[in-house]
């Protein structure tokens, strides 16, 4: 299994990249979450994310398909909403991947009291990160700039024509 990090650990290791990705995630309310169905095929769902302490988290309706998928196989990929094409000017496309860990017990109860989700049985997942990637176009518009972070390799930048 790949090494994982909390959002805070990622932000401490790669503050500029974390700020870029957080800005993309905060620019829009809705994002696309990919999970794995029982047969291994992908499922995409809309989701909203938030920060809770050192963690990037999201909630889910009780027994939703994405929650059941993640309870069975915690692997996920989250693609930040890119918005309209003009919203990407000077911006980056952002993705995070890792394992979603369901939060239970006292921490879940505190979240329910604070956030007041539609149901007290709503799920809360902490996103442990194995990879964060941004893709953008270079200022001179001649190539893509892909920035990738992993807990083991840190930040690496790739240029692709």
Task: Looking at this protein, list some descriptive labels.
161 residues, nine-stranded antiparallel β-sheet, Pnp Oxidase, Chain A, alpha+beta, F420H2_bilvrd_red/Heme_oxyg, oxidoreductase, 9 strands
Could you characterize the architecture of this molecule?
This protein is an alpha+beta fold. The protein has a single domain, classed as Electron Transport, Fmn-binding Protein, Chain A (Pnp Oxidase, Chain A, Roll). It contains four helices and nine strands; from the N terminus they run ααββββαββαβββ. Strands 1, 2, 3, 4, 5, 6, 7, 8 and 9 form a nine-stranded antiparallel β-sheet that branches. A hairpin with a 3-residue loop joins strand 8 and strand 9. Helix 1 packs across helix 2. The longest helix has 13 residues.
Question: Helix and strand layout, with pairings?
Answer:
Blueprint (H helix, E strand, L loop, with lengths): L6 H7 L1 H13 L3 E6 L5 E6 L2 E3 L2 E6 L4 H8 L2 E5 L13 E10 L2 H11 L7 E15 L6 E7 L3 E7 L1
Antiparallel strand pairs: 1-2, 1-5, 3-4, 4-7, 5-6, 6-7, 7-8, 8-9
Helix pairs in contact: 1-2
Keywords: Oxidoreductase
GO molecular function, one term: coenzyme F420 binding
InterPro entries: F420H2_bilvrd_red/Heme_oxyg (IPR052019), Pyridox_Oxase_N (IPR011576), Split_barrel_FMN-bd (IPR012349)
